[in-house]
Design goal:
689 residues; alpha+beta; Rossmann fold; 33% strand; globular
């Protein structure tokens, strides 16, 4: 069938009507069938209960966010399925059972107001920390209601009493002072970009109507978004505005006292940040300036004021190599901490500026085959303290505290949620079609070596998102404990080897990411780890698109596929919800020259009744206002009409994450692994000729 927009009407276009009675009834009919098949078994019930118990237990680490003397935490458990927003001091947090000050009980709030509130975050006004702007969504959507909260009184402030309040929208906001904020929201017609994000930013003073907020800046409707913020570092206070022209390019301006803008003249695709007198630039493509060329993925430092005055003298703080990339960096009061990835494994460093330049030293040990993250730095309140969180595929998380130059102490450690005795992690490399070596991790019991067995491989490959080793109790309980092998892939499109690992597969080169995933699937079989009939694949969002391509382009490689909150109709993706913001990643299907390469892989336009496909489970959320649920709905309908084995489940809540609370998360995890167990592990599936 000819694709949408090529002279033929899409017969399933009505499934894009998110909350129409007809579309919801269609979804519910398929939910009933999928639940009957996969959610009615004793095994499903046992796994769902175990995953829910893990998510609800108070033995999990309550990860905090530091704001000066306070550690804030959002927490969900069995008694509080919607969650608690709370805080405590560091001294109290270090105790076995901290005494938390409960600020917001979201379950009580939702019940009192008759709303299905899902927590969206809190912006605490500093330094005094007496007020916060609270984000709440209905059912987990990206669009949120913003309300001002009095932390000391533990009450929301009525707009009639001067409290800030924004109706449901994909808003952007930032504190300036107690009585002023920057705000970008839906001000009316023309105030949002084509992607649904703020196009206009204003300065809103307390006690005045939103309609009277002072204009600051506006971008174009074709931009992704604009925003404004305030850096309150004492002695270095700066107002700034950013304009994201697409997903990967941004213009950053300093906003002067007379509201004139001063462009920071770095490449628009570079990461630009500052702290006190230092400007940091991380170019994503080679940058030639002042007679020097700096490679993509390097980290450069310059005196900020000198740079603004025209100087282009940089000190190179990090230079990538074929195996090592910069993953992240952040400031303490006096130091810059770097996290690098060497073949997707963490290394930590501390850099210190001084009168004779920058010095560099190791920060802390990072175990192999694991991920160690630096967190809870607070450069604004002073001090060089930080926390480290470490986990691996088989070792649960450990949270540690330290300061630069000090010893590392264990603060919290999670218990094991599955039996990992005898399980090992190995790293292999597969050669993609163009010769590029693609890394992947294999997790399995040592007794499985030498015998091909049921295997599930996961992938993403987009937006420079790096996938690193991490503990997952659901994977362990649902798959590894039952004798399965789990594989995490690091295909191109991510950031595991720096920005060029991502940019090398943009737009017309997108096919290389799919070739990478297929190469790993073949390599797993060639190494004797699995067979194609025993091999499953799972991915969500951009990874859901990956799954759609695997189904339609490489069906012979897989025995089953799970495709979650996916992009699939690439002819219309840019017209649905936030889709227009991703054209820098995929291309513009309205341009014939770009649709020419998108059409080659767009799953919805490439299904075939004549082809044999592995069974597929498509899962999405009605309340996903980032990736439209119509993608999954229409794909399920088309595959079914062509006679393929397709299963469908749509959660009414959850937004792009697919679940709004722990119970829904446990259900979906159990659904995925029951599907894989039935398709890949139970009995003998017919072998392909």
């Amino acid at each position: 069938m000819t694709g949408v927009g090529e002279g033929v009407t899409d017969p399933y276009l009505w499934l894009e009507e998110v909350e129409s009675d007809r579309a919801l009834a269609w979804a519910e009919e398929r939910n009933v069938v999928s639940k009957e098949r996969f959610a009615s078994t004793e095994r499903f019930g046992e796994l769902e209960a175990r995953v829910l118990a893990m998510l609800d237990t108070d033995t999990r680490i309550a990860y905090p966010s530091r704001r000066g003397p306070w550690l804030y935490n959002y927490w969900r458990d069995r008694e509080h399925p919607k969650g608690l927003w709370r805080r405590t001091t560091f001294a109290e947090y270090a105790k076995t059972e901290p005494d938390w000050e409960i600020l917001i009980d979201l379950d009580a709030l939702a019940a009192a107001e008759g709303e299905n509130w899902v927590w969206g975050g809190a912006a605490v006004k500093r330094p005094e920390q007496r007020r916060a702007l609270i984000s709440l969504s209905r059912g987990g959507a990206d669009a949120k209601v913003i309300r001002e909260f009095d932390i000391e009184a533990k009450t929301f402030i009525d707009p009639a009493d001067g409290g800030y309040h924004l109706p449901e929208a994909k808003s952007d906001y930032a504190w300036i002072d107690h009585d002023t904020i920057y705000v970008g929201t839906d001000f009316g017609p023309g105030s949002l970009t084509d992607s649904g994000y703020p196009r206009v930013v204003k300065r809103w003073r307390r006690g005045t109507p939103l309609a009277e907020a002072e204009f600051v800046y506006e971008g174009l409707s074709t931009d992704v978004a604009v925003s404004a913020g305030y850096d309150r570092t004492p002695g270095y206070e700066r107002h700034y505005v950013s304009r994201a022209t697409d997903f990967f390019n941004e213009e950053v301006y300093l906003l002067e006292s007379d509201d004139t803008l001063r462009l920071i003249e770095a490449p628009t695709d570079a990461d630009v940040s500052w702290n006190k007198e230092w400007l940091l630039v991380r170019p994503k493509t080679p940058w030639e300036v002042n007679g020097s060329t700096y490679p993509a993925g390097a980290l450069l430092a310059a005196d900020f004021e000198e740079f603004l005055s025209g100087a282009r003298d940089f000190e190179v703080l990090f230079t990538p190599d074929p195996h090592t990339a910069l993953h992240g960096y952040s400031w303490t009061e006096n130091h810059l901490l770097l996290a690098t990835l060497h073949d997707v494994q963490t290394e930590l460093h501390v850099l210190t500026p001084g009168p004779d330049g920058w010095t560099r030293a190791p920060l802390a040990d990072a175990p192999a085959m694991s991920t160690t993250s630096v967190m809870n730095l607070d450069r604004l309140e002073g001090g060089d303290e930080f926390m480290l969180s470490t986990s691996s595929f088989t070792s649960p998380a450990t949270l540690m505290s330290s300061s630069v130059g000090g010893s590392v102490e264990v603060l919290k450690q999670e218990p094991a949620f599955f039996d990992a005795d005898g399980m090992e992690t190995e790293q292999f490399f597969a050669r993609s079609d163009d010769g590029t070596e693609i890394p992947y991790f294999v997790i399995r019991h040592r007794d499985l070596r030498g015998t091909p067995g049921p295997t599930v491989m996961s992938g993403y490959g987009g937006f420079e998102v790096s996938r690193r080793p991490a503990y997952s109790g659901a994977v362990g309980m649902g798959w590894l404990e039952r004798g399965g092998t789990y594989v995490m892939t690091n295909i191109r499109g991510g950031g595991e080897y720096g920005p060029e690992w991502h940019t090398s597969v943009l737009k017309a080169n997108r096919h290389k990411a799919y070739e990478d995933f297929a190469a790993i699937a073949r390599d797993l079989v060639a190494r004797g780890i699995t067979t194609h009939d025993q091999l499953g694949a799972v991915g969500g969002s951009n990874g859901g698109l990956l799954m759609g391509v695997m189904l339609t382009r490489y069906p012979e490689l897989f025995g089953a596929i799970v495709c979650q909150v996916p992009l699939l109709d690439m002819k219309r993706y840019h017209l649905l919800l936030a889709g227009a913001s991703w054209m820098a990643e995929y291309g513009d299907p309205d341009k014939p020259e770009e649709w020419a390469y998108i059409s080659e892989y767009s799953p919805y336009q490439n299904t075939s009744a004549e082809q044999t496909y592995p069974p597929i489970l498509l899962a999405t959320s009605t309340r996903d206002d980032r990736v439209h649920p119509g993608h999954a709905r229409k794909m399920a309908a088309r595959l079914a009409s062509e006679g393929h084995e397709v299963w469908y489940y749509e959660n009414i809540e959850g937004g792009h994450g697919g679940a709004a609370d722990n119970k829904q998360s446990a259900f979906q995890a159990a659904l995925v692994y029951e599907f894989f167990l039935q398709q890949l592990m139970d009995g003998e599936r017919p072998r392909r000729a």
